[in-house]
Amino acid sequence: MALDPSSxxxxxxxxxxxxxxxxxxxxxxxxxxxxxxxxxxxxxTQLVCxxxxxxxxxxxxxIVLETEVTNTASLxxxxxxxxxxxxxxxxxxxxxxTAFRLVLYLKLGTxxxxxxxxxxxxxxxxxxxxxxxxxxxxxxxxxxxxxEGPQVP
Length: 153
Ligand SMILES: CC(C)(COP(=O)(O)OP(=O)(O)OC[C@H]1O[C@@H](n2cnc3c(N)ncnc32)[C@H](O)[C@@H]1OP(=O)(O)O)[C@@H](O)C(=O)NCCC(=O)NCCS
Known about the structure:
This protein is of the alpha+beta class. The protein contains two helices and six strands.
């Protein structure tokens, strides 16, 4: 979260980390927003960098997100940080708008991994080295944390 000097919320990034069927430990940026009056000062960039650092520290292989194809500010921000356009998702949003999936590879070779077959219980087979437990009811790894950042001026 980004707070102003009076501790009012002016920006937020929401992210999570989970195992993906492709065999990667995947970070996901679910939300990024900065209050209109505080935009253009690098706050979102700082929040995204913090989210990337936090997920990289927890050994993420890659980080993905979706953003509308028309969201120039968001595309510029993420692409400046090294995110690549991996897919165009036609009419992805409920309002019918199309999205780009963006991906940032944190480890060599991550981009070449392909989805693996799940077993009958919906788990990845043990040979992939994933813990059979350790996920909460939302599918997130147990013990995942809400990340809070420093105050910004
Ligand atoms: C996208 C958003 C989070 C950016 O927040 P911010 O704090 O203004 O972002 P930053 O200041 O860190 O950087 C934004 C970059 O986009 C650029 N930018 C901002 N508005 C722009 C616009 N309308 N057109 C083109 N570029 C724009 C800035 O110049 C900056 O790039 P630069 O550093 O190369 O100059 C903010 O606009 C927002 O909350 N939008 C609504 C929610 C949203 O779209 N979230 C993203 C969903 S994936």
